[in-house]
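Dock manganese (II) ion; give full complex structure.
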Amino acid sequence: MPDTARYWAFFFPSLLFFGIVKSMTPYMTNDIPDTNPNRIFALLPDITEHDKDLITRACHFAEKAHEGQLRNSGEPYYNHVFATGINLATLRMDAETIAAGIMHDVLEDTKVTAEEMDKEFGGTIVCLVQGVTKLGKLKYSGTERHVESLRKFFVAMADDIRVVVIKLCDRLHNIQTLQYVPKEKQRRIALETLEIHARLANRLGMGRLKAQLEDAAFPYVYPEEYKKTIELFESVRPISDGQLEKVVHTLEEELVIFDVEIRQIDYRVKHLYSLWQKLKRYKMDVSKVHDIVALRIIVPNVGDCYQALGVIHGLYRPVPSRFKDYIAVPKPNGYKSLHTTIFSGDGSTLEIQIRTKEMHIEAEYGIASHLSYKELGKSGSKEEVIKKTGWTKELLEWQKGEEHHQDFMKNLKSDFFENRVFVFTPKGDVIDLPEGSTPIDFSYAVHSDVGDHTAGAKVNGKLVPLDTVLQNKDIVEIDIKENSSPRRKWLDMSKTTMAKRHIRAYIKEHGGALDKFLTR
Ligand code: MN
């Protein structure tokens, strides 16, 4: 049962029985170690025999490859990759993605080679798995600059956006089983989940996944705040279940009269992490948060949304300035809905969200809904869909996000119109540089001392000249010598302002004698 539903069941037990249709999704939980492929098929009503076969083969392949390996929990390792497959099926991803998800750790953690997998499953699936493996090599150090380049890197790396979706589903299971990971690693992994994965999920419009990632990471990163938030949550009872039931019945009756068909009416309880985010804005005053519980009404089309809003405002007095038209002005991540808060009649207030089925699916699954089993299954349009929903748009949205709003134009210009390359240190740290950068730029980006003592460079294990232009995904190793120093010609061999500034400073400081030496 999702956490939100659990809390709801705790506070408003009767609600579970009085007939509100609930949109619950059976995410993998630890207590069901059943790894039968039928559990995946059950999530994909339209699945073909061909795809069943593909997924079944992937299951057998992964199970055999991981044989004997155990998770920290003591479970077979295979349980983890199967859970990743379940998470992908819950998002209704296409069969290739699910198969790749089930095999996502095979190349990294077992003896199986890419060639062997290619023979069995073909190039696309191997590419997806390799993409996930590469993302897995990224290290997270937690500094702001690093977080930023890591996020961009995620974006730039994934030639196929499905790689990112697999990675997020992989992370979801890892963070939901974090209690088994050694204590000293937990906080770092959880923080990384909040800063990278959850934000990425949000940027891709995957609201449900974002909420799950955040709530699982929350207690590990901010244990005190987590406890406090639960306390506050438990201290409020925004609306009684009786009153909520009344509102639902009234709406059901009245909307029919006004010719609005209710396709679905349910509620959602704000997830804990987002409640905390909001509480922080209101100095932890929980009485200021009006959307702890929200009623959601799904209607057939956009016209019905406004019609329903009119009916609701006719029935209940709206709380002033609590109305938001995200249909006319969607959120940066594409979220659409009408939000209003009403006085429900007994002194309590209630947020109501009105949207169409399409808006609802988009809000819950985001980009995944475009990559879904159904969409990708349609006439060979797969490549087109992937392209259409591909990175260009997402990149822009990404940069447009709340935290970057004021710098949007600046960032857009420097980061995306001037292309970046993303390269690795031998340890797996990511360095992002402008296109055309060389090992000299790389070494100054690592540290000015490294730059000033650069003697040579290896790219992907091979010695190269210092003016070699670096390519995306290169692994760069710098040879440092105590007696090496910057040369004047490095100015022409470097691209970044930072490198050039250091080189000039060095030459200036060490004056003419060196100049002679440098120009020989
Ligand atoms: Mn994994």
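Observed: The pocket of manganese (II) ion is lined by residues 80, 104-105, 170 (CB under 6 Å).
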